[in-house]
Amino acid sequence: MKTHRRDFLKTTLAGSAGLMFSNYAFGTSQYPIKGANDRINVAVIGVGGHGRTHISAYKNQTGDVRIAALCDCDSAYLDRELAALAKDNIKAEGYKDLRKLYENKDIDAVSIITPNYWHALATVWACQAGKHVCVEKPVSHSIWEGRKMVEAARKYNRLVQADLDSRSNNSLAAAIDYMHQNLGKIQYMRIVNYKRRKSIGKIMGPGVIPKTCDYDLHSGPIAMMPLPRQKLHYDWHWQWHTGNAELGNNGPHQMDICRWAFGKTDLPKTVFSFGGRFGYIDDGNVPNTQVAWYDYDGIPVIYDSRALGERTGVDNMDGFTGYTVTGKKVHHPYTGDANCSFYIFCEKGYLAGNSIYDNDGVLVKRFNEPSVGPQYNFVKALKSGKREDLKTDILEGHLSAIISHQGNISYQTGKCVSLEEIRKTAGNYKHLSEALLGFEEHLKANGLNPEKEEMYMGSALNFNSQTERFTGEQSEFANLFLRDNYRAPFVIPENV
């Protein structure tokens, strides 16, 4: 398996796209697309939930885009969205199988909003079929397949954008620039994700597959098994074989901000995670409360995922009582998404969302720049044919997803321990004891006793950014999580 970096290599023009789409012929420009004044034919794959956001964004760009097709393996969702488009006098073709969609040579680009385990294969097949791609976060379900997505984009000269919204936020971009120019060196970063995630329920026996859904296509790359939960759609996020927990669900957004703000192409050298699935007896097997600590060239990055409580007030996040920097509590305002907050602490102040504060928590500057969404930027890049016009190229999306995968792999290679053992271990990592205190307060605020809950403490893992593999102790076990097992014919090949 080739795992060295490909991002600095020249892209190569492909005469044909092997494997499934061996007869597709490519043009001769760098990123062949229609003329700058032509409308782009786009298809949206996965229209049950967030896919409607993509549909809406493309509908609002009628001068540049035509929604030519929709694809979903559940006819209930597909028929609903086709009918909605028809009411707006948009005639789109409907597809159940994305492979049939990819055979349509009139389709220039696709948005992929499928379950996580489909992202990589759908992207690789799209590149092989000559389609440009906008793929949702996390771009991959595992580290290995994310690298294959990058290789496919480069091999077939496709523009592939990771749909990470923050890069399209001009206010955040201005705040980050101000931070670099005025606040000195970054000291550490804290992220809190406070999205409420309710129990997915406990069933006896398999769940019921909707009659409108082709379960073979829905399963795709994963083993086709009796449904191990009550609800087919969305709740796949909270089972490891299909989802990536909250750290992989919303975490890639914040991890991308982390890499963007640090200006780094390498990855954290060390990761350590702990948490558990508290308060529920259900079919979910991923943590609903989790802390991941990263060493980013000596700069700690701490990610808190707390899914039990509702947000009850601006300065009261059900047990989250604030941050301390060198012993001093600082202001922690909500900005942007009311349930996800990130803070970059520097020598002379800190960035919180789109705002800059001094070390006493006094607002210095707030940025309110006009912005457009990631689908608009994707279309702009398609019109120009320039990869540099992509706000988040697939390589950036892959690297940001890796950080979430690192934290989850640490957790998955760990063991059940007492809270006291976690307390002792947390003392070895800078600022982690502060995060642990908030973790305990969150459980207490939601009626749980941290001393009696079953805690899970992950392994401390070292990571090599060049090989994209773990090294040192526990690495043999951890590296087993780098790659998924795939079900034929839904297999990502070694050579894309």
Structure characteristics:
Rossmann fold, Dihydrodipicolinate Reductase, domain 2, 496 residues, twelve-stranded mixed beta sheet, alpha/beta, 2 domains, single chain, disordered N terminus, 14 helices, six-stranded parallel beta sheet, 20 strands
Describe what this molecule looks like in 3D.
This protein is an alpha/beta fold. It folds into 2 domains: 169 residues, Rossmann fold (3-Layer(aba) Sandwich), CATH 3.40.50; 243 residues, Dihydrodipicolinate Reductase, domain 2. The protein has 14 helices and 20 strands. Strands 7, 8, 9, 10, 13, 14, 15, 16, 17, 18, 19 and 20 form a 12-stranded mixed beta sheet that branches. Strand 1, helix 1 and strand 2 form a beta-alpha-beta unit. Helix 4 runs parallel beside helix 5, helix 5 runs antiparallel to helix 11 and helix 9 packs across helix 11. The protein is globular, with a radius of gyration of 22 Å. It starts with 39 loop residues before the first strand and ends in an 18-residue tail after the last helix. The N terminus is likely disordered.
Task: Output mean pLDDT.
Answer: 88
Specify the biggest β-sheet: 12 strands, mixed
Unreliable stretches: 1-29, 311-328, 331-338
Categorize the overall geometry: globular
Helix content: 25-40%
> If helices are DSSP runs of H or I spanning 4 or more residues, what is the number of helices?
14
Which radius of gyration do the C-alpha atoms yield?
A: 22 Å
How many structural domains can be distinguished in the coordinates?
2
- Look up the CATH topology of the largest domain: Dihydrodipicolinate Reductase, domain 2
